[in-house]
Amino acid sequence: MGREEQQEEREVLESIFPDEITDISDTAYRISIQLDVEDENEDPENPTEHPTLLLTITLPEPYPSEPPVLALSTPPNSAPYPHLDITIDRERLLSSLFAAIDENLGMQMVFTLVSTLKEAAETLVAERRAAAQEITEREARKAEEEENRKFLGEAVTRESFLAWQEKFTAEQREGEERAVEAEAEGAGAKKRALAAEKEKRLTGRELWERGMVGKVEEEDDDDDDEEGVAQGVKDLSVVG
Question: Is the pTM of this model over 0.85?
């Protein structure tokens, strides 16, 4: 195919991409490719600008017997897109065209290369977005599980139940022992209090049996004798 045939392909491409194709020279042109990427989380009132790729095609004289020379870039001062970075993804995207070049060698292939590149870039964006979404959902599930664990507590296993049962039984036994000790101590105190009260209210017979009656009478007799002696002394003093 000579230059004339290459020019014919160029005219066909212009009919397909009237606003996207720009001539650089007689043998080179650039095609702007806007990716169709949909984001479910995108704000309708503040949509994100869809990424655009610039594919520069330079045709060697033997084209299409020889493949075109391709270069890939983005528009100057274009806003960065979260799931596509041309400085990182350039080689991967260009390598996705190798199979299409081999399959179409000897035929006009620029339209096929543009379509293949667009599909590869959109697939890459979709994969990265899905991976990011998966990370977000996994973190959300983890946070939800942590929150639910606060209310549900730890899962009961045979080992955890046996450990709880042993601890509960020991605490219950210790509580029962303390209750028995407290009851015994209370009973002893009550018994001592009753004995003291009974001591204060001894009957005459009990006082006599304990030898307290004779002691009291002796003390009373001693007091009477002392009073009699004192009175006699007083009477003698008056007579003299």
Answer: no
